[in-house]
């Protein structure tokens, strides 16, 4: 433990040093200049400061004030040495942050016990701090691991789903990026943006249950086939629901509701307006926008201008006006995502 003793009298310093030397593990540095001692504290944090009150240039009180102000988080204990009649000085020292006092001339027994007690207290406080820090680091590491595993599981689930979906390429990547961007534009928190980024790629996971003959059909679907196709929403919901993971809960909601429409003409519930969760309204728009820009077995890729015009045309119809306007307002950022994650085969 680092002990710093400051007294302008070399004789006093020798007496104090001899007393502190009896404490095992005490590493003592002495100063006759309080100014030099303060400068030293800037590079070496003491575990205990022992200060004389009467010193030239910077007295004990000024030293404490300066020390506590310069190192506001230092909880270093400070003992000040005063003479009997300095009651006012002692009160002021207490207000400034002194921990204890010793009277001059020093009583070696009392001096030794006080110093030993304060050092023991300091030692346990430091140990407690270290323990708290290492526990916090441990919790952070474990939390990060859980998050990484959750993200990896989602990623692998999506890889599995991709094996049989015709919406290949970067569709789900772009859609997730658009959704995160849009949630930011709408003022949602960073945590909510991240949730959407991870949950939206699972919107069509229910297509795992759609027969290939419908899923991969090159031409338009018949009315009966559409009934089955639409079931990918409820199927996706039952695949994802019931989890304690908030991402999977959100993904289940998006899977179920991403084909609902603001005007109530969507499926599977025919919900309208704010009956549809904001996440599903966001995901639904991003899904459609990206599908418009992509080649499908039944259609060519649309130009971005045409796709934006379609979003504008669908305000209040297919899309929530607030969500659609935020999307149109973020046009440049949308285009940047589109360029960055464009599929090679896309026109
Ligand atoms: Fe879908
Ligand atoms: Fe999709």
Q: What are the key terms here?
A:
347 residues, 14 helices, binds fe (ii) ion, Rossmann fold, 5 strands, alpha/beta, five-stranded parallel beta sheet, single chain, 2 domains, Hypothetical protein af1432
Structure description:
The chain folds into 2 domains: 2-133, Response regulator (Rossmann fold), CATH 3.40.50.2300; 164-340, Orthogonal Bundle (Hypothetical protein af1432). α3 (60-70) links the parallel β3 (48-52) and β4. With 347 residues, it is an alpha/beta fold. Helix content is 57%, strand content 7%. The chain has helices at 10-20, 34-41, 60-70, 87-96, 108-162, 171-185, 190-199, 212-215, 223-240, 246-257, 278-293, 304-313, 321-329, 331-340, and strands at 2-6, 27-31, 48-52, 78-83, 100-104. The protein starts with a strand and ends in a 7-residue tail after the last helix. It contains 14 helices and 5 strands. The longest helix is centred in the middle third of the chain and has 55 residues, at 108-162. α9 (223-240) runs antiparallel to α10. It has a 5-stranded parallel β-sheet, sandwiched between helices. The structure holds fe (ii) ion (2 copies). Residues 203-204, 232, 258-259 line the site of one fe (ii) ion.
SSE map:
Elements: E1 2-6, H1 10-20, E2 27-31, H2 34-41, E3 48-52, H3 60-70, E4 78-83, H4 87-96, E5 100-104, H5 108-162, H6 171-185, H7 190-199, H8 212-215, H9 223-240, H10 246-257, H11 278-293, H12 304-313, H13 321-329, H14 331-340
Parallel strand pairs: 1-2, 1-3, 3-4, 4-5
Helix pairs in contact: 2-3, 3-4, 6-7, 6-11, 6-14, 7-10, 9-10, 10-11, 11-12
Bound molecules: fe (ii) ion (FE2) (2 copies).
Residues 167, 171, 203-204, 287 line the site of one fe (ii) ion.
């Amino acid at each position: 433990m680092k002990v710093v003793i400051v007294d302008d009298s070399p004789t006093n310093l020798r007496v104090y040093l001899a007393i502190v030397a009896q404490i095992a593990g005490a590493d003592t540095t002495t100063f006759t200049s309080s100014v030099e001692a303060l400068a030293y504290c800037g590079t070496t944090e003491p575990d205990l400061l022992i200060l004389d009150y009467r010193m030239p240039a910077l007295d004990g009180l000024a030293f404490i004030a300066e020390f506590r102000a310069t190192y506001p988080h230092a909880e270093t204990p400070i003992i000040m040495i005063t003479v009997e009649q300095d009651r006012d000085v002692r009160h002021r020292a207490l207000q400034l942050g002194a921990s204890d006092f010793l009277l001059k001339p020093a009583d070696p027994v009392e001096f030794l016990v006080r110093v030993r007690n304060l050092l023991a207290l300091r030692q346990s406080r430091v140990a407690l701090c270290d323990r708290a820090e290492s526990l916090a680091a441990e919790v952070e590491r474990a939390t990060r691991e859980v998050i990484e595993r959750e993200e990896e599981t989602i990623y692998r689930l999506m890889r599995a789903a991709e094996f049989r979906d015709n919406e290949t390429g970067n569709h789900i990547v772009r859609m997730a990026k658009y959704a995160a961007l849009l949630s930011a534009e709408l003022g949602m928190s960073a945590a909510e943006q991240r949730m959407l980024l991870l949950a939206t790629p699972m919107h069509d996971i229910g297509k795992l249950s759609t027969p290939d003959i419908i899923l991969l059909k090159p031409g338009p679907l018949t009315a009966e086939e559409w009934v089955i196709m639409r079931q990918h929403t409820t199927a996706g919901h039952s695949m994802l629901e019931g989890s304690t993971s908030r991402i999977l809960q959100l993904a289940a909601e998006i899977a179920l509701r991403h084909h609902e429409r603001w005007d109530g003409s969507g499926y599977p519930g025919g919900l309208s307006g704010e009956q549809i969760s904001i996440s599903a309204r966001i995901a639904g728009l991003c899904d459609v926008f990206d599908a418009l820009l992509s080649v499908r077995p039944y259609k060519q890729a649309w130009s971005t201008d045409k796709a934006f015009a379609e979003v504008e045309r669908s305000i209040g119809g297919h899309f929530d006006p607030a969500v659609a306007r935020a999307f149109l307002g973020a046009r440049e950022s949308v285009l940047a995502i589109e360029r960055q994650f464009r599929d090679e085969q896309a026109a």
